[in-house]
Design brief:
Strand content: 25-35%
Structural class: alpha/beta
Shape: elongated
Radius of gyration: 30 Å
Distance between the termini: 50 Å
Mean pLDDT: 87
Strand order of the largest sheet: 12-13-14-16-18-20-24-22-23
Helix content: 10-25%
Low-confidence stretches: 1-17, 19-26, 63-71
CATH topology of the largest domain: Leucine-rich repeat, LRR (right-handed beta-alpha superhelix)
Length: 320
C-alpha cells in the first residue's frame, strides 16, 4: 500500500511540472494552449483560491484518507483477563471469502463471538477459513449465512455454541448414515449438524464426532435407537427435543456439557445411563450460579431420565 501511495504522489508531481497541449478554434484558426493540471483545476472550479502548494497538500490528504478507508479488517474484542481476542463482526471487510487471521495486535485470536457473522452482511459470505488458533465458536456465530458454501472447523475447537450454523442452507455437508457433518480435511465428522430426514428411526454417530449441534435430531418422532460414541464431548440444546420414540440412551464418559432442553418432550425416555455420573451441575448461567447433582442419583437410569426430561430439563448441564 505504501508503494502504491509513493507511485501516486510521483505521478502527481509529474502532472504539476508538465504541460498539457490543447487545440482550440478561434476565427477559423487553430490556437495551441499549454496548461498544467493545477491550471485546469482552477478553470474547472473558478471559486477555488488555493495556491499550487495547498492544492498538492489537499491531494496528498485525499490519498491518505483513501488509503485508510481501503484497509479492511474484521472487528475484534479483547477477551477479559486474557491476552487473546475474539472476532465479533465483519468490521470493514467487504470480501465474500473471509480468512480469519491467527493473531491480532500480536495476540492470538481464539474465539468467534456470538453472531459474529450473523446479520445482513453475513448473508452473502461464500467461504470462511478458520485458523488453528480458534478454540471456541459461540452461539449463532454464523446464523443466517445462507450463501456460505464451505467452511473448515479445525481440531483446535473445543466449544461450539447453540445455533452456530442455523440458516446456512448452502453449506456442503459430509453425509453418513443419514446424518450431516462439518469438519476439516483430517476429520470430516467433527461436528454433527443434523439429519438428512426427520423420518430417521435408528442411526450410529461417527466415532470421530466431538460435538452434536443444537436441534440436530429435533422432531425426529420415529427415532427409537441411537448410539453415541466415546468421542462425544458436547450435546447441544434441543438436540433430541420431540423425539417421542426414544426410550433409552447412554451418555458417554467424555461428555462435559448438555444444552438446555436437550431432551424436551421426550415423553417415553425412561432410561438414561451416565457412563460418568460424577461432578455434574445444572445452571442457567454458569458465571453466576451452579447447582450440583448427586452422582448417586444420576447413577440411577430412571432418575437421570426424569431429571433430563422434566426436573432440570430447562437448564444447561455441565461437568467440571
Amino acid at each position: 500500500m505504501k508503494n502504491k501511495k509513493i507511485i501516486t504522489l510521483l505521478s502527481l508531481a509529474c502532472l504539476l511540472t508538465n504541460s498539457f497541449t490543447f487545440i482550440s478554434c478561434s476565427n477559423g484558426k487553430n490556437e495551441i494552449e499549454y496548461k498544467n493540471a493545477y491550471e485546469l483545476y482552477c478553470e474547472a472550479y473558478p471559486d477555488y483560491t488555493g495556491t499550487l502548494e495547498e492544492w498538492l497538500d489537499s491531494l496528498k490528504s485525499n490519498i491518505d484518507n483513501n488509503d485508510e478507508q481501503s484497509t479492511e479488517t474484521l472487528q475484534y474484542q479483547k477477551i477479559a483477563g486474557k491476552d487473546e481476542y475474539r472476532v465479533i463482526g465483519l468490521g470493514t471487510v467487504s470480501s465474500l471469502d473471509i480468512v480469519i487471521p491467527a493473531t491480532y495486535n500480536e495476540f492470538p485470536v481464539t474465539e468467534i463471538g456470538t453472531q459474529a457473522f450473523g446479520g445482513e452482511g453475513g448473508r452473502y459470505l461464500t467461504s470462511v477459513t478458520i485458523p488453528d488458533s480458534i478454540t471456541s465458536i459461540d452461539d449463532s456465530a454464523f446464523i443466517g449465512c445462507n450463501s456460505l458454501t464451505t467452511i473448515s472447523i479445525p481440531n483446535s475447537v473445543v466449544h461450539i455454541g447453540n445455533n452456530a450454523f442455523d440458516g446456512c442452507y448452502s453449506l456442503q455437508y459430509n453425509e453418513e448414515n443419514g446424518l450431516k457433518y462439518l469438519g476439516n480435511s483430517e476429520n470430516k465428522y467433527l461436528f454433527l449438524v443434523g439429519t438428512t430426514s426427520t423420518d430417521i428411526t435408528t442411526t450410529t454417530i461417527n466415532e470421530n464426532c466431538k460435538f452434536i449441534g443444537s436441534s440436530a435430531f429435533f422432531y425426529c418422532p420415529n427415532l427409537t435407537e441411537i448410539t453415541l460414541p466415546e468421542s462425544i464431548t458436547s450435546i447441544g440444546g434441543y438436540v433430541f427435543a420431540n423425539c417421542f420414540g426414544l426410550t433409552q440412551i447412554t451418555i458417554p464418559k467424555n461428555v462435559v456439557s448438555i444444552g438446555r432442553s436437550a431432551f424436551f418432550q421426550c415423553d417415553n425416555l425412561s432410561s438414561v445411563i451416565f457412563t460418568n455420573p460424577n461432578n455434574w451441575q445444572y445452571t442457567l448461567n454458569p458465571t453466576i450460579s451452579q447447582f450440583p447433582i448427586s452422582n448417586t442419583e444420576l447413577s440411577d437410569p430412571s432418575t437421570a431420565a426424569t431429571y433430563l426430561t422434566t426436573d432440570y430439563c430447562n437448564f444447561d448441564w455441565i461437568r467440571t
